[in-house]
Specification:
- 2 copies of one chain form a homodimer.
- The first copy, chain A, is of the alpha+beta class and 382 residues long.
- Chain A has 3 domains: 17-101, 3-Layer(aba) Sandwich (Rossmann fold), CATH 3.40.50; 130-184, ATP-grasp fold, A domain (Dna Ligase, domain 1), CATH 3.30.1490; 188-377, D-amino Acid Aminotransferase, Chain A, domain 1 (2-Layer Sandwich), CATH 3.30.470.
- Chain A contains 12 helices and 19 strands.
- In chain A, the strands form 3 sheets. In chain A, strands 11, 12, 13, 14, 15, 16, 17, 18 and 19 form a 9-stranded antiparallel beta sheet that branches.
- In chain A, helix 1 (24-36) packs across helix 10, helix 4 packs across helix 5 and helix 11 (322-332) runs antiparallel to helix 12.
- The radius of gyration of chain A is 21 Å and the shape is globular.
- Chains A and B meet through strand 1, helix 1, strand 4, helix 2 and helix 11 of A and strand 1, helix 1, strand 4, helix 2 and helix 11 of B.
Chain lengths: 382, 382
């Protein structure tokens, strides 16, 4: 018996696709890759991160280090991403060396840099909250309060975002020394997300628009489709994907204001938390369509299987042993689709999600919430 | 950057489940395991077999070697299987050493040994073709022709099976020196398969009965559910799983005779080719329910998403580069669910399958057949 010989590129079996970043998005891409017969090579942050647990052909390295990136993409013609944090200059270098980055750096910059995104969307006439570059408390006073301050780069899941109701709320943001933009604090009725997949050729498929609920800046709950959603959201996502030349999945997160306007909140150019429902609820999951898009394969249909799909994130809570809790959750409701990410539980960390599909929204919602609650708290009593 | 450190058991992360055998069934179990958050350790026949491509924690070894088996199951409390070929005495040894084999050797023997299976089913009063142990051409003459000769052990996909219409057809079988049984050559109208999943506690869920079509002893096509299928098939599968104390998936392959009787053809105690449709067509795939059953988790619902699901196997043909052909198939019909097994194409070898779901049987069937044809022949013209 010999031990397994994985790790570095295997002779004779080139990777079909390099994926940078070993989080749960890369992990769920692997489920789709297994079906399609796509061999993924992963650049993982550590030997046992979420996606490294399920992708044999991985190298451990730092995505901010160009040499590590080069090793990981080696013989892969196409490169895609679990997150938006690879430095743009490294992406340019990899492209220059003959690898197709999908999405390409010229598109990805609008998911990496919020100022660039606001400038470009404003140019395109896409509806945005009122915004401005702010370099000082004086600039912010001119912009007016309340406002939201955001670092232009590197923020996610509520990090790098400050709601400023009075001047002192901005101290931390300015003290960070990072470039900032201010945005109008939108009085929204709800948040929507419009997702599309786009091929290099320009073909686009759109998923049903969904409604998402955030708690402390972190996505908690998604209802697909969003009840009474405006078609304009889907049209806007299609248009943005085309104008920005996105390849792969694009999520356009939107505010729906109380007076019925749609405003673009964020862009993500990868599979997105608001599309996880599609694994269990749609004819083609966002992960499969992401792979199909970046590999320039024809895109799959996005029709839901059932009238309603509800996804609820499992955020790290009182329960430490999620595997043990799995049997409790499934005993309560064997029809819940469980997705665990192989991560150590930490307070508030996304460690998994559940999806429930059904014909009745209230029932579907309460089943999904109850399952996530059981995973977080251990019980739903009291 | 360090290379990946997989292979032997990782310190601190015990495998949730050991799987013996690295074929496509283990590969598809991994898709379900990723969702459930189950860590699989695989015993693979080679470093790049189908499932070893997608399961990092694998050891390469020989499933007929007890030491290799011991290394693979190491810290895994539960052991399950991609195939039925592990020697019964090794299974008994592993069980004695504290690992739960699921299915257990006392059940699995009825999927390993056709004589034991016929004796036990006869005892239970389960309907079987007329059969007898035959040790010589004289025994076979007494049994009567035409007949089917089968080796009691080690046959699969038409191997170890001889249709005997005249005495000379039996020469190869008797020359093999292997123990044989003779069975009546059943004049069947069609073949059905009834699948159930069963937990150690005895809970059972049944999948819809499907119709399967074999070509040269190899499964080619499955329609789920079988049109006008008898409920008796499902009842029989439930009963056999309980009487034989099967844990995990059980497939009961059945002949439906022209006069409407059901006769048991074969038993398989693992996910089965006749259940692949469930990945794309059912609320819970057979692979997820196999994992749930062997890990003693509550079983998932088996309802189909659509009125019809059709699965057609891709058997090795003229097309060598299946990955390249994938774009041709999806361009013709982007709604086809493609499953490639990462295997080298050889004539007649199962290298993948396609599933199509729909509302109209004829259309669903012709779409699935056309996709499989394109994967095998490169075109469907002429």
């Amino acid at each position: 018996m010999s031990s397994a010989d994985q790790g570095r590129p295997r002779p004779g079996t080139p990777a079909g696709l390099a994926v940078i970043g070993g989080g749960q998005l890369a992990r769920m891409m692997q489920q789709a890759a297994i079906g399609l017969g796509v061999r993924i090579r992963l650049l993982a942050e550590g030997p046992d991160v979420s996606a490294a647990q399920v992708i044999p052909d991985h190298v451990v390295g730092d995505y901010t280090d160009l040499d590590d990136l080069r090793t990981a993409v080696a013989d892969a013609a196409v490169v895609t991403f679990d997150h938006e944090h690879v430095p743009p200059e490294h992406l340019a270098a990899i492209e220059a060396e003959g690898h197709a980055c999908r999405p390409g750096p010229h598109a990805l910059i609008y998911a990496q840099d919020k100022r660039a995104m606001r400038e470009r969307l404003t140019e395109l006439g896409a509806p945005c909250p009122r915004w401005a570059v702010v370099e000082s408390p004086g600039d912010l006073a001119d912009f007016g309060l309340p406002a939201v301050l955001k670092t232009t780069r590197g923020g996610y899941d509520g990090k790098g975002v400050w709601v400023v109701r009075e001047p002192a709320d901005a101290d931390e943001a300015f003290a960070s020394g990072r470039p900032l933009i201010a945005e109008e604090l939108v009085d929204f009725r709800r948040e929507l997300s419009a997702q599309v997949a786009r091929r290099p050729s320009g073909d686009v498929v759109a998923y049903p628009v969904v409604e998402s609920t955030q708690v402390d800046g972190v996505c908690k709950e998604v209802v697909a489709p969003a009840p009474d959603h405006p078609d304009a959201a889907q049209d806007l996502a299609r248009r943005i994907s085309t104008e920005l030349d996105v390849v792969g999945m694009l999520a356009v997160e939107l505010f729906e204001t109380r007076d019925g306007r749609l405003l673009v909140n964020e862009l993500a150019m990868r599979p997105h938390n608001t599309g996880h429902w599609s694994i269990d609820g749609s004819a083609t999951s966002q992960f499969e369509n992401h792979l199909r898009a970046v590999l320039d394969l024809p895109l799959g249909p996005t029709d839901p299987h059932h009238p309603w799909s509800v996804m609820v994130n499992i955020l790290g809570g009182a329960v430490e042993d999620l595997a043990a809790q799995r049997s409790v959750v499934l005993a309560e409701d064997p029809g819940v689709h469980v997705h665990l990410y192989g991560k150590t539980v930490k307070a508030g960390r996304k460690v998994g999600h559940v999806t429930v599909v059904g014909d009745d929204l209230d029932e579907t919602l309460s089943r999904a919430r109850r399952a996530a609650d059981l995973f977080e708290k251990g019980s739903t009593d009291g």
